[in-house]
UniProtKB/TrEMBL annotation:
Region (Lon-protease-like): 352-457
RecA family profile domain: residues covered: 67-216
Keywords: ATP-binding, DNA damage, DNA repair, DNA-binding, Hydrolase, Metal-binding, Nucleotide-binding, Stress response, Zinc, Zinc-finger
Function comment: Plays a role in repairing double-strand DNA breaks, probably involving stabilizing or processing branched DNA or blocked replication forks.
Family affiliation: Belongs to the RecA family. RadA subfamily.
Protein name: DNA repair protein RadA
Keyword check for DNA repair: yes
InterPro entries hit by this protein: AAA+_ATPase, DNA_repair_RadA, P-loop_NTPase, RecA_ATP-bd, Ribosomal_Su5_D2-typ_SF, Ribsml_uS5_D2-typ_fold_subgr, Rubredoxin_2
SMART domains reported in the protein's UniProt record: AAA (SM00382)
Motif RadA KNRFG motif per UniProt: ranges: 253-257
Keyword Signal: no
Amino acid sequence: MAKAKSKTTFFCKECGYESSKWQGQCPGCKAWDSFVEEPVVRTSTGKAVARKEIREPSRLSEVQFSEETRIISGIEELDRVLGGGIVVGSLVLVGGDPGIGKSTLLLQMCQKLVQQSRKVLYVSGEESEKQIKMRAERLGVFQSDLLVMSETDLDIVAETITRSAPDVVIIDSIQTMYREEIGSAPGSVGQVRETTSTLLRLAKGMSVSIFIVGHVTKEGVVAGPRVLEHMVDTVLYFEGDGGASYRFLRGVKNRFGSTNEVGVFEMRGSGLVEVSNPSEFMLQGKPEDAPGSVVACSMEGTRPILVEVQGLVCQTNFNYPKRTAAGIDFNRVNLLLAVLEKRLGVRMNDMDAYINVAGGMRLNEPAVDMGIVLAILSSYRNQVIDGKTICFGEVGLVGEVRAVSMAEARVQEAAKLGFERCILPEVNRRQLDLEQMDLKGLKLIGISNVYELLEIL
């Protein structure tokens, strides 16, 4: 029998590129100082390999497809982000900061699935079975039909999955699993690659949906090799300020649905509670008659969400004015400040400017430009914008206000929540079919450039 040879090789932590020697820059992803040394085990070339069964390829038109290929989790916000439910045979990675609620969300999902008579296996490498039961009873999700297991050996976990044949498996977490043949510590590049590869084969071969929890680094990305995110089908990030009650589940990769959807939850003592109407929820506590406060509309996937954009402008005490942005792109704020100074003559070179999106949500859509501009102007001129006013629109470098997508959905959301005035791009206003829309007294004000905002103020 051929004897296994042990050697070491170098892996890139970012993309998984393999090299026989250490390199300062990865040839694959061009990342610097990303190579780590890992021991690997290879068999000699003289080892006999059993002949494998060769499968004939299938015609795409002959592949059977039905609605049963998705499992409804019972948590609508999670199903929304997943694209309509859990795809059978999919591998889903859930990442997030410590204590944000990843395990809580997945344990509550297990409860919903068990109620549907689904067979669910919860594997934890961080907690004992007694600790899992204590947490489950605190959440009120304990069921005798839920299978739990405390194990870190990948071979034992894989054998258990093969024998029990569950519908859904939870692995908490990927960094605690290990295989003895690899030889390196759990959580290393080699261990994470091997664990993910094994779970991927199980998911596809047995049509088992597997959720794996991943720890994140201080930069906010999943710890381990970047290839981990490439191997899985779906990557979900659970975000939110640890001191706030809001939690946001966002998809950054999804082979079976949109990556723009977001699920909103509220953390309570009894666990996570879905927020079915995020707009109303995000606007709670909005101050009345306060300069610098504006309601803007952002689209998260197919859902319009109304948020409060706050701006504060004050005289600087330093040689260089300070700029701070929370919940919005910092460079975008600087760009809009330059537009205001150049096009409207608003002197900002000796003023500190602070922008904040209330509620802890992070917005990346250019349609929020109008809200940022109005919040800055309102604070700069110390003028109050009516609380029943909502706005959206993209602002260009020459001061023009450009059209944005899905304007009809934004306007209908504003009318549903009782707003009386909507400031939007003139192009979008002309395209709306007002006869087919129930505006409920909502007045539409179309503008073409930022100069018209001064007249509105």
